[in-house]
Amino acid sequence: MPPTYFLRRLLRHLPARAGRHPRLLTVLVSVGTLGSWSAQAQDVYFSQPYATRLHLNPAYTGLFDDASVTLAYRNQYPTLIGALQTSQLAADYRLRNQRSAVGLLINADRGGGLNLTRLEAGFTYAYHARLAQNLYLSGGARAAYGSQRISYGNLLFGDQLSDDGQQVGPSAEPLAYDPVHYLTLGVGGLFYTSNTWGGLALDHVNQPRVGVADDAKLPFRLAAHGGYKHYFVKTTVKREYREVSLAPTGSYTYQGGSQRLELGLYGTTTPLTAGLLWRGAIPGPGNAQQTLVALLGLTWNGFRFGYSYDVSLNQFSRETGGAHEITLSLTKFDLIEAAKRRLRRKNYAPPPCPTF
Questions:
Q1: How far apart are CA 242 and CA 31, in angstroms?
Q2: How many other CB atoms sit within 10 Å of the CB of residue 285?
Q3: One Pfam family of this protein, by short name (predicted)?
Q4: pLDDT under 70 in the chain at which residues?
Q5: How far apart are CA 246 and CA 233, in angstroms?
Q6: What is the dihedral of CA 124, 271, 306, 186, to 10 degrees?
Q7: Strand pairing of 100-111 and 303-312?
Q8: How far is C-alpha 173 from the geometric centre of its chain's CA atoms?
Q9: Cα–Cα distance, 90 to 108 (Å, whole number)
């Protein structure tokens, strides 16, 4: 059941004395802030889409490394009680035939005055193919099992308050909400060359139900993304890879009637990557939902570390603290074996998109 329903019930029971009870007002603000996220049951937007690329498109499974494990954490609106927090574990492994790869993706979302939690765990699969000398295709699929629930421990209803604003006992409100379990499916594809890439992904194609209301379902998510990378330097000397490049990127996402556009610019000089991204809701710059993201990444000896901070261009969101996001990856890639595969024409070059 969407949190806006509970918000209306809270307002119905909210007497004048609630203005003297900061806990109740804090919960109302927290529920209202996250209502737009959970009422439509939309997915979280990561500010490092290429570090959380299995979430972006299952076709990325196994494209960058022989094997990798990535941890991601996002804390949105940290100054609010009930801030939205997302944790992700992603892992992928490229099979010996180099054409297939499998992955694991686990997402955990938690936040809001209703303490809404969603846990999804599933697998990804991708198949890689070379269409021409410098043209590659990867197709992927994802299947995940999810669970969603809400808790009422942070709520304080009006009938629990005395005339002087003191809590007097439990609420008479019926507060039953059983966990909802669901299966979600997704597919994706990616074309790329040595300098350009473009991908399309469709998630929640079966639009699973996540609540008791008729409209309580996960709407399908359509995501298109791409970009171009210009290399100033690209060399491998004594098994040490060095890159100096600049990459403009763009993406479009549609889910549940909401449309988002993202434009970014990444600069890399090994081992550092810096990025600046603008994200806004269509129909345009006049919309209040606009965000500027600053990103910094470091690659060192099989590790990748990324940090990003969202600065909202909307006054209310700025006062709630923006968003912090951290990613940490452990990767394995054998350059000698890759050279042997290249001689046997059995290797598949990675896409040129950023790794943060």
A1: 48
A2: 8
A3: PorP_SprF
A4: 1-41, 78-83, 112-115, 151-160, 162-163, 165-177, 211-215, 283-288, 315-321, 333-348
A5: 10
A6: -20
A7: unpaired
A8: 35
A9: 12
Report residue 240 as tokens. 């040490």
Token look-up 């790869």 returns 101
3-state secondary structure of 132: strand
d(CA 196, CA 23): 51
DSSP letters spanning 107-143: EEEEETTTTEEEEEEEEEEEEEEEEETTEEEEEEEEE
Tell me if 250 sits within 8 A of 226, measured CB to CB: yes
d(CA 10, CA 21) in angstroms, rounded, equals 14
- Enter the tokens of residue 339: 């050279």
Q: What is the pTM of this model?
A: 0.79
- How many Å apart are CA 81 and CA 31, to the nearest integer? 10
Residue 62 φ/ψ region, left for φ over 0, alpha for ψ in the -120 to 50 degree band, beta for the rest:
left
Structure tokens belonging to residue 254: 């549609």
Query: Pick from 111, 108, 87, 88: which is nearest to 38 by CA?
Result: 111
Alpha-carbon distance of 185 to 120, in angstroms, equals 11
